[in-house]
Specification:
Chain A has 245 residues and is α/β, with parallel strands linked by helices. Chain A contains 8 helices and 10 strands. In chain A, helix 7 packs across helix 8. The longest helix of chain A is centred in the C-terminal third of the chain and has 16 residues. Chain A starts with a strand and ends with a helix. With 580 residues, chain B is mainly alpha-helical. In chain B, the strands form 2 sheets. Chain B has a 3-stranded antiparallel beta sheet. The chains are: A alpha/beta (245), B mainly alpha (580). Chains A and B meet through helix 1, helix 2, helix 3 and helix 4 of A and helix 15, helix 17, strand 1, helix 21 and helix 24 of B.
Chain lengths: 245, 580
């Protein structure tokens, strides 16, 4: 799914979260969104997910303006916030069933996939437990299974690497992200961990003060920033910090 | 670790105690908006003050003759009104304890629970001077004419101090318990009902005076605030010293303040959702029956074996979200039959089991039946049952309409995200118009079932007050009121789905004002009242016209809102200053 932002501006009171951001993201890529705290990363994801509406500009998918009431389009994207939204009193399995039904993904064969993931993520023994009794990491794993099995084309992940998941969960996350992208999907995730960007993300989007400061592959950014190998992001952030101060 | 056996009385006692504690402990709602509202709101305190002072002055200047309250009734009235002070203080203390946002942080730091609670209790006392002043003014107003100035001032100050400390003790006992909200709700409901009664029926006041005159004495003895008010009054009238004996229970109560304080931390423990600690205390060789019993007691599902869980997943039985209509009441079953397959799917997503609408409807019916019977007795038997009938009939109307409101189950759910909350419509691929249509249809079906109640109520009003309206006119009033309610329902429903528990932002530039529940509620009531008023004073046609305007507003409103939601013009992330 081709993602486009056209001159998008978003304000919260007097604060400009995003300022005339224009951006095109082609399908089949992993995009890491980086930026200082309060840069506008989460706002960007919320705008793409349709939770917030832009004050100006347009958000388009495959050239069409985003319409929240278009269920077909809504099912093509999935947003996972930093704390996953689960129905606390419902069991893990019931939460997964609800997600699958909402994404119209309860097709034959999905049960095997769910069982494999539940076992792999050590959640099977908790499958009948209410989601409200899960730890943060376990809750994120549950939501991750829902996300993977819903098979949306565009994944919007807010700080997935700071989700409280154990190394096993993070391993599954990286593997499934790559698989989704290999199948033609797009994954956009925010992070503060520079070491989790190099070698994983295809392109990096750097945002600061509501504006796009850099967008491209690591090698493109290295050339643009004139940074030595392996220190591209550190150099970029250093320059960013200097320009802000 | 100590292993507990299923016959171990210590284990069972501990289990029972913990389950009971969890049931009694109030959940903390540590949210900034609650806190801000609590700190900034002076309305309840001012209302309590105004009420007590007004009552005080009113009692001091009551007319002579049969309409006057006797001494016992005066004492009881003041004791009852003084409960407002308890409620004001209790709400403040409870709020300081349960909505304090910093508590979430402090609970994770090595801070002493008792210290935190006492500190917050102390902060809740900001309204104590308020209580003291109110009691003083009330006392002065009651005893203005009876004694010289210095006696009045000294006595009133002493009275105010005693009463305030008693009020504080009571408030501390009630803080954090379920009785606090009950007291507050009961008192304010009582005020509204008394006001309605006195406005609607001229004979209500004399009936109330009669009841108070007959029951004032024992009421004063029963109400804790009466334990201070009674001797104060007797002292004013130069009563015997023995009257001071009634202060004794008050003194005992005040002495229990430290105990009340010591109990506060226990009421404010955060709910422990993860109760798995018990699982490790059940021995491996315990019977399945015992395990099940423990898990049921802990409100957790009985654990399944991994084999069973695998089977549940592989057989796809967990994906069956369909509702079982046979488990619902008659109303739920009927509504379920009226849904088409797509709507049943939505209902299965919204509810785990069918909601209990029939129970509420049955209760409304019983109340109305009682009201009608009592009203009938009033008309034909010429007894004051008329008043009772009116009150119950109004209660039936309220009860009848309340459950008819919009409910979309977990589709109305909201989650905290960062500094705001976001609704299910915002997070999941849910079609806003589709849910709206389904929820509106459901609400209308329920209203349709409730309509005979409202029409019957209209007819009853016509029978009771033929000088005001005929029974047919009553039915017409009921019909237009119903139509107005039904007409505005979509707007209400749409708002509920977009921002449950908080106002709605409809694109800051497109719609500059916040559409709050209060606005919607006033709009709804205004439309119903307007339609009824037009029917009574102008004619049915005009009333019907007013109701139809409501229908148009509701229809146009939700369709417009749907379009704005589609374009992304509605902020589904509700900011903290307005959420919750």
């Amino acid at each position: 799914m081709r993602v486009e932002l056209r001159e998008v501006t978003k304000r919260y009171g007097s604060t400009i979260a995003l300022n005339q951001v224009s951006l095109t993201i082609e399908p089949g890529q992993i995009i890491a969104v980086l930026g200082p705290n309060g840069a506008g990363k989460t706002t960007l994801l919320r705008l793409l997910a349709g939770i917030s509406g832009p004050d100006r500009g347009e958000v388009c998918f495959d050239g069409r303006e985003f319409d929240r009431n278009d269920l077909f389009m809504r099912r093509r994207l999935a947003f996972l916030p930093d704390f996953p939204p689960l129905f606390a009193e419902q069991s893990v399995l019931r939460n997964l069933a609800i997600a699958l039904r909402l994404y119209a993904a309860d097709r034959p064969g999905v049960e095997t996939r769910i069982l494999t993931l539940l076992e792999e993520l050590e959640l099977l023994q908790l499958a009948e437990m209410p989601a409200g009794t899960l730890s943060r990491g376990q809750a994120y794993k549950t939501a991750l299974i829902g996300l993977v099995t819903a098979a949306s084309e565009l994944w919007l992940l807010d700080e997935p690497l700071a989700s409280g998941m154990d190394p096993l969960g993070l391993h599954v996350l990286r593997r499934e992200v790559r698989a989704a992208v290999a199948a033609g999907g797009t994954v956009i995730y925010t992070t503060q961990l520079l070491e989790m960007v190099e070698g994983f993300a295809d392109r990096v989007l750097v945002i600061a003060d509501g504006q796009v400061r850099a967008f491209g592959t690591l090698s493109e950014l290295r050339v643009a920033a004139g940074a030595p190998e392996g220190q591209v992001l550190a150099t970029l952030f250093g320059k960013l910090h200097e320009s802000r101060s | 670790m100590k292993w507990f056996r299923d016959h171990d009385p210590e284990f069972l006692a501990r289990l029972r105690r913990d389950v009971r504690n969890r049931a009694e402990v109030r959940q903390l709602r540590l949210r900034r908006p609650h806190w801000n509202r609590l700190r900034n709101s002076k309305l309840e305190g001012l209302a309590g003050l105004a009420l007590l002072v007004l009552v005080g002055f009113g009692l001091a200047r009551q007319p002579e003759g049969p309409a006057a309250l006797n001494r016992g009734a005066l004492e009881a009235t003041l004791a009852l009104v003084s409960l407002f002070l308890v409620s004001v203080l209790e709400r403040q203390i409870s709020g300081m304890l349960t909505h304090w946002p910093d508590l979430a942080t402090l609970l994770r730091l090595p801070a002493d629970d008792d210290w935190m609670v006492r500190r917050q209790w102390g902060r809740g006392l900001t309204r104590f001077p308020f209580v003291l002043l109110t009691a003083f003014i009330a006392a002065v107003s009651v005893s203005l004419d009876s004694h010289p100035g210095w006696v009045v001032a000294g006595g009133a100050l002493l009275f105010a101090l005693t009463l305030s400390v008693l009020v504080l003790t009571l408030a501390t006992w009630l803080a954090g318990s379920r009785f606090g909200p009950l007291l507050s709700g009961g008192l304010w409901t009582g005020v509204v009902l008394l006001w309605l009664g006195s406005k609607l029926f001229p004979e209500f006041k004399s009936w109330l005076v009669l009841v108070l005159n007959q029951n004032g004495e024992w009421l004063t003895l029963v109400l804790p605030t009466g334990w201070v008010i009674r001797p104060f009054y007797r002292w004013q009238e130069g009563g015997a010293a023995i009257q001071w004996l009634s202060l004794l229970p008050g003194v005992v109560l005040v002495a229990s303040l430290t105990t009340a304080l010591a109990r506060l931390p226990g009421r404010l423990r955060l709910r422990d959702q993860a109760l798995l600690a018990y699982a490790s205390q059940i021995p491996d060789d315990a019977t399945d029956e015992f395990r099940k019993k423990v898990n049921e007691a802990l409100t957790l599902p009985a654990p399944c074996s991994l084999g069973e869980l695998r089977e549940t997943v592989l057989t796809r039985s967990f994906l069956e979200l369909d509702l079982a209509p046979d488990k619902g009441g008659w109303l739920e079953r009927w509504v379920w039959r009226c849904w088409n397959p797509a709507e049943r799917q939505l209902a299965a997503l919204a509810y785990e089991t069918l909601p209990q609408w029939s129970k509420m409807f049955r209760l409304s019916g019983i109340l109305l039946l009682l009201g009608v019977s009592a009203a009938g007795l009033g008309v034909w038997g010429k007894i004051s049952w008329l008043l009772v009938g009116w009150l119950i009939a109004i209660g039936a109307l309220i009860y009848g309409l309340a459950p008819m409101g919009p409910t979309a189950g977990r589709l109305e759910n909201s989650w905290e995200m960062g500094q705001g909350t976001v609704t299910a419509v915002g997070l999941f691929p849910l079609s806003f118009p589709e849910i709206c249509r389904w929820a509106i249809k459901t609400a209308r079906l329920r209203l349709l079932v409730g309509s005979p109640l409202v029409l019957l109520l209209g007819a009853v009003l016509g029978i009771i007050h033929p000088e005001l309206i005929s029974p047919r006119g009553g039915v017409e009033c009921g019909a237009v009121a119903l139509l107005a309610v039904v007409g505005l329902q979509p707007l209400w429903m749409a708002g509920n789905l977009i921002g449950r528990g908080g106002p709605i932002f409809v694109g800051r530039r497109r719609f500059g004002r916040r559409l709050t529940w209060l606005t919607l509620g006033v709009f709804w009531l205004g439309a119903s009242a307007g339609a009824v008023a037009a029917t009574i004073w102008v004619g049915f046609g005009w009333g019907l016209g007013c109701a139809l305007v409501s229908v148009v507003i509701g229809e146009v409103g939700w369709r417009w809102m749907t379009r704005v939601v589609g374009r992304g013009g509605v902020e589904l992330l509700i900011p903290p200053e307005v959420s919750g």
